[in-house]
Amino acid sequence: MADRGRGEGKLRLLVGKVGLDGHDRGVKIIARALRDAGHEVIYTGLHQTPEMVVATAIQEDVDAVSLSILSGAHNTLFPRVIELLRRAKTSIPVFGGGIIPEEDIPFLKKRGVKAIFTPGTSTQDVIDWVARNIRPGAQASRGTEARREKPAPRRRPGKRR
Amino acid sequence: MKQDGASTRRRTRRQWEKGTLVPALKKAPERMAEFTTLSGVPVERLYTPEDLEDWRPEEKLGLPGEYPFTRGPYPSMYRGKLWTMRQFSGFGTAKDTNRRYRYLLDHGQTGLSVAFDIPTLMGLDSDDPRSLGEVGREGVAIDTLADMETLFEGIPLSKVSTSMTINAPAAVFLAMYLAVARKQGADWKQVQGTIQNDILKEYIAQKEWIYPPRPSIRIIVDMIAFCTRHVPKWNTISISGYHIREAGATAAQELAFTLADGIGYVQACTEAGLDVDSFAPRLSFFWNAHSDFFEEIAKYRAARRIWARAMRERFKAKDPRSWTLRTHAQTAGCSLTAQQPYNNIVRVALQALSAVLGGTQSLHTNSMDETLGLPTEQAVTIALRTQQILAEETGVANTIDPLAGSYFVESLTDRIERQGLDLIEAIDRMGGIVAAIEQGFPQREIAEAAFRYQQQLERGEKVMVGVNRHVESASAPIEILKIPPSAETRQIRSLRRVRMKRNARAQRRAMDSLLRAARGGRNLMPSILEAVEGYASVGEICGTLKTVFGEYREEKTHF
Question: What is the rounded distance in angstroms from the CA atom of residue A15 to the CA atom of residue B205?
């Protein structure tokens, strides 16, 4: 897609609440922190289905999708969003957070979630991770796979897991 | 030299500052330049009689069980009856939860409190595509009366008081509860319990809604009118600050938005022609028991005072029971940490203590594992034991409102009352709480406060032990309750069985009657009862009402 006039390092990010849970304190804090870090942030609003999130991601031509789930439905909803993105032939990366037990994280990573942030994460950690791991034009870069996963940064206690 | 008492005191305090304090500060300065409560209210180094110079106990406090109820809604408070220990619980299917209820009742719990899963809270059936992955996860899945019958099997509804945390589809669940009670042979006039039924705070904070605000209020008015006649001991709304606080509000915002919601309900009922004293005594409240010990105590006390004055002066209620604010409290889920989870036991104990010192009527203590998932049996037992230790070992229940007269607590109570009243006045100027919600006012204020707190946390100005201070590299894992995905399939199968077995014609008739009631002005409750007793599902009933009332949605926003 043609240049959208983004500044250096500026990304277009979709933050979404998928599923029925209405806990939006965290997602709004993240949305605002990412905006304050210089990105364009689109918030889906509450109670989105995976289909709605994927449609918005494509329509808004975003560089990454970030999902917040506090309902316990993460093992169903994350893989569903990733599957729908794959079917739509895009490689928009997905990351997210919420109340997600440690032991579910390997499963989610295996299903393609790039990172999971759990309670106690600072907004700066999320901003830094995004800066290191998300590149503009995810959809255009499909297939080139220029951006290989960097080795995971050393885990800090009680932060990202 | 002759001086009046006040100036003697003032001179003494100045002398203390000059002669004693300042030299000490020169040697060792204070830990911080500014001390504030968790909500950001400045806290002075010392409170003295000067802070209460114009303060009249007879006007500000009154006596227990008397206007303005600062000291408590009842004359004997916990000396007569301890607070109700009510642990919120529910998970998986009705059968799973019924087993937990019997366990809790056997272990000395004195009331039930039903947690429903999210599809149920949204008025969706377990087999709705949007329910995928969420059935039975955060609470119990209830689709039809058949589930409700299982939920209360072996539990006599004439004896146990039940609280149901449900809002948007509350009318359906009240009808189901009453239908079970009728089947058990219980007299509706004796049935006791509470339904949360507080839709306004859903738009403000918890966000599990179905219809837009105005038709939602109509349903609530219908429920109140119905209960006033047929179920007189039922608490018709639990006006809730809990979720407002969890969403990030300050103590004063929690207080103000919640009381403004209460004012909104009373206004709607009186406009519908109900006499204020016929329903106001059955309204109750629900506060968040957060971590700033004294601020919380001040909040409960200020809330009772504001409500008493609003009911008496604004609504001209004459029955003293209409003036009293009775409340449930729950310790703050958002204060718990996934890191070093055993620390949560201590947090909960202190929060519970402040709720008791603030005079709550019932209490839920959170379990230490609630940032990780639903509580295990062991965790929930410790939480219940925490309340029993407070009630039976510490002596805090032996005297009424023990902190009254404290220079600090009374100053803080006055201050939070003032902040609350200012916000309520701002909402009045917007045209009341519904208009304020439609303009997004409380939602914005809360998001702002939540962001501010997050920043304070990240700058280290506010502390969460184990998260931004006293961090440990690894903490011992604790047991987590797992809800097997099979709960979802089992629930869907049983719902389909109910649909097959029920009388289809009676079902259609009930839905037609419901539609007519919704389109006209007739009270909705009899039609909902008829539908429920014919085993209509919550999704079918709410779906039918949606065709008349419409659906509330949150739009996409660009930040």
Answer: 19
